[in-house]
Amino acid sequence: MSTSSSSASINALLKKTEHYDKDERYMATSDLCEVLKRHSSGDSLSVLSDSSTERRICTAVLRLLHDKSNDVQAIAVKTLGVLLTTVKEEQVLEIADSLTDQVLDASKSELRDVYAIGLRTLVKTIPPSMGDLTSKRLVGRLLDGIRTSQNEEIVLACLDILTDLLGRFGASAVSVTRQHEPILQMCLQQLVGPSLVVRKRAGNTIGCLSVVLSDALLGSMVERLLSQIDSAAGNPDDTRALIRTMCTVSGAVGHRLQQPQIDRILPIFLKFTNPHNAMTGDDEDDMSPSVDYDMQDEAAVAVANELKESCFMGFASFVTRCPTQVEPHLEKIIEASLAYMSYDPNYSYGDDDEDAGEDESGEYDDESGDDEYEDEDSEDDDDDDESWKVRRSAIRTLKAVVEAKRHSPAALWTVTYKTRQGQAASVAMALVTRFKEREENCRSDVLDCFTKLLSVTVDAAKAGFVTLASDDMDTGSVTSIDLRTKYAPSLVKGCEKLLGVKKGGGERSKSNALVLLSTLCKAPGGIGGEHAIISVFQHIRSFLADSDSHTLHRETSSKTLRLDALSLVFAMLSCGNHDPVHIRKGLTQILLPPLCEAVKEQWYKVIAQALRALAAAPQFFVDGFNSNEQSEEEKLEEMNEVANKIFLAIKPLLAVHDVDQEIKECALEACACLLGSLHSNLSVEQKNALLGLVLERLKNETTRISAIKTLSSICDTNPASTQGKIDLSSMLRESIETMAGFLKLQSRSLKQSSLEALDTMIKNHGAGDDKALYSRVLEDLAHLIADSDLHISHLSLRVSHSVLKICPGCGPAVKGFVLPQALALSTSPLLQDLALESLLALLQQVVVSEAVDFEELMGMLRGRLDEASPSKHAIYNLGRCIAIITASTTEVHRQKLIAETLTLLEGSKTPSDRVALKKVQLAILVSGDLGRAMDLSSIPGVADALPAIYMGYFDSGSEDLKHSAAYSLGRATVQAQSTFLPAVVEALEKNGEKKQYLLLSALREFIQCSDGQKGGAGVNASLQVILPHLEKHSSDDEEGIRTMVAECFGSLACMQPSPILKLLAQIAHNHSAITTKDGTVDGVDTASQKNALVVGDLMKESIMPSLYKVAELKMERKVDLGPFTHKVDDALPLRKAALSIFATCLEKLPGTLDMNAFMPVLAKALSDVEDIQLQAHQIVISMCVRQPTHITSSVESFVDPLEKTMHKKPGQKTGTELERLNEWIKSAIRTMTAMGRVQGTMNSRKFAEFYERTKANSKFRAIFDALDEEK
């Protein structure tokens, strides 16, 4: 469209905006909005290049804001938001002035809301570049409007606009930052004004203002608010407004407040939430005289309740945002929350609450629970009762406490807190007793809070922070949380009472009760024994059943409740914490028919969850029979009936094509479980029908990965089970051929799944006579064996191993297709872990199956020596390959190779020729790895010769031979401890530093290999031989020796954490030398990296307190180097190791760290030397994801050291030094960027200004661009 035609269109639309018909005006304005949108996005030619056209559009839109039609006004406001992004700055200012005039005009009361919305739209949509000038026009006039106007509506409109202005430009616009003090003064005045609504709006404005205030002004504001609260103690209205404002401020910037300020604020809140005043309708009539306000005055009660609600909102905010600073007050906060969680002065629950819902036989009576909640709806007198808001706020405070204690929740279960009227209870037990709450919102929050507590406790138990009592533990020797007997019965009873209510109970409460029971399933003991399981299943049936006899909820329950009920079923069946016998009885008697019917639902999520539950059910009909409970015929009949029901439920969904993908996948999962557990209880026709459908799904592109996993699961069934091995002959060959064909495709996930399934299928169901089929499989997978993808190589080698084991006749195919790729992989410098182990297993099977002659294979491997990479790993891997085939061959071949090796190594000579030297090195490595597999000391002449040969090479001029000899000595000692180990420790005390280092290296290799091969059992028997020597050399002057000792201690600590860590602490205590401390810390570092969970229990109490001090330790000295001096910090290695331990614990054991002590250490590390700073940067970046709350609370302490690093001057640095400096600066900027993404950090004005200042600095532009590319 040309410019002229666009202008004509605009003119026509502007004319229509003046039409007498409101519909015409509405459509014209809407079309104008669309035109402006296209212009702002650049999709059309500019139609606003003419300033007169701009002005006419602005005038028209402003005029439409006065329109009599509400619809036209609404579309005009929308159009205004688009217009402000397209017009020039002078037009924006004119619009701002015009709208401000209208807002402040006392005669325009009818349309003031429209003008205010327009002005707020302007503030939210104008480009940032116009923010300063626009703010300059608005701030002064808004303040004048608040100050001079007697019209409450004008004041409220001005406060709302001012709040939006502070939120958008409060920190960036100079014209606003200069007005922070006047704005604050004005808002504080309004807080004590006559209008309650104005007070509330002013408090919101102060909350928004606090985010952008400087630290000094924020501190001043808090002090003034506290002073006003003290002076307004006799005026409830003023006190309520001031406390609500303080709550708003704490929610926005609580992390910026200092400890003294928090220590003043919280006692004020606690004064208004005195547990003694938390009344209930069950209290006796003689109430305490300390309740000083007239309880008959409804207005006074409402004011008091709102004040309490605000206080608890403040508690929740402080506990969430700054848990460390709140810790001294946490006990009183919990006590107040527990008391007011029950605050219900207008309702009596009666004395028999605990027995409600049970009849004389102990069976639950649905009607009694129903009546209780029906009373809630029938009471009209409680319509104005707002006490539930106080209870809700108290419960949410407890939820914040639970979140703050997520790594150490034990106190919430075991510590008893005072609540009200002399009562006391733990947090957990108090929550359980509040399941009877009558108000739906509060009841849902109680359930949600307890679910959160239960969830974090189970997670903490898995991490080792707390102990949950179970049947197989001695509860008398350790403090534990007894969920099984103390809580589970009460929880199940309370949840059942909620689930049994027909009406008035609340869908949210029922849903939360189901989620709570699902969470309880994760704890030891689950929901309980047979009675509890049967009872819960009965309630679940009421949500699912469609027969006339079980329609308690079916007609009224929503699909969400049915989904939650099915999720609970799945949790109960899959958690592994219930007796299989009890589950089987419940399924047979109650739940299996409704589950089978649930797959006929309409909502795909319900169908999928029902299928997951059915998938978990079959195993219980294998494991869930008592030996004497039923006859074999009865068991068989029951299993046949169950298998048939599940078959009829899943077969239609497995066959249909036009269903959701999730249903297809869940149907395949259910099919796998049915065939894996109950295949012998299905007829041949039923089995073949399911297997045929699986094969059909295997050939479908959208379901083939799920079908592959299904086949893998079916084939992985234990053949020793009562069901025996399933017959797959009808589809085995075709499925193998299909999956082998997938190996030629590009999809990595498809290749990975296919290889895993092929390995399982061939290993468990392969036939040894199908040589042609397996040869094609080997041909198809051979190209996948390469170091470009080691995991795929590992899987391919594993399949090759399984094929050769099942069908030795495939030896030529292995030799022709697989072996060349495997040999090439054997000398790859990247080969490691699973791929290496699979390669060794294949080579071993090649020898055992005689697929290749031993001498020929040995020649092939030795021939790889010349083609091996120069990398150390290549020749070491080649040595392991030769050792494994030697250990697997005949005794004759083995003796021959050992004799050749001893002859080659005799005299420990070092060849001058490079090729000969590599042959010697390979022989050394082969002997060591062979010694790990078999006891070489039992061979005549080896016991004395081999250690002497190894130690002889310690004097070699080749470093490669030295380290290979140490490596092999350690490995050969694994199977020959009684002979080789005494020789090693004896030589350790007789030789100098260089040989001591190599001997300690051999000792380290022995410890690590013993741990991996024998689980550490071999080392445990030799600890008394090893430890004295390690302790002696832990204080050696040579750093390399100390480091090697530390690695030995670290490996030993993973096997025997308690004695080794205590020994390390004793060594550090007995030796003041920095060198000893260095070795000790390195030992702890090694142990934490190898197996953090094992040493976790001892870290927090025994190690961390000392580690915080070590992390700040500096031992600087000056070294005179003649013309100049050099400063040396002997404690630098200690600080490095300490930070490394911190990083490991933050990742694996966050509960071992005291964040209150750690965060200052981290801030100081950011201003340390370069290496320490780089470590600290990585820790901060990691914490931005894992512990964002602590980053937010400490962000200001990180600003100065980061900024100092960013502005390091290069001086005379060039080349590598300059590049290193740039990386250092880049790391600091990366850290700042990561912190900027954490929610709440930009609320700190100091950090926000630092962030914007850095982003605006042109010298960092290239670094920011590079970081963007990294994403």
TrEMBL record:
Keywords annotated in UniProt: Repeat, Ubl conjugation pathway
Compositionally biased spans, kind Acidic residues: 350-386
Tagged with keyword Repeat: yes
Segments of this protein annotated with the region Disordered: 347-388
Annotated GO biological process: SCF complex assembly
Stored InterPro entries: ARM-like (IPR011989), ARM-type_fold (IPR016024), CAND1/CAND2 (IPR039852), TATA-bd_TIP120 (IPR013932)
Start and end residues of each TATA-binding protein interacting (TIP20) domain: 1100-1254
Family per record: Belongs to the CAND family.
Protein name: TATA-binding protein interacting (TIP20) domain-containing protein
Organism: Cylindrotheca closterium
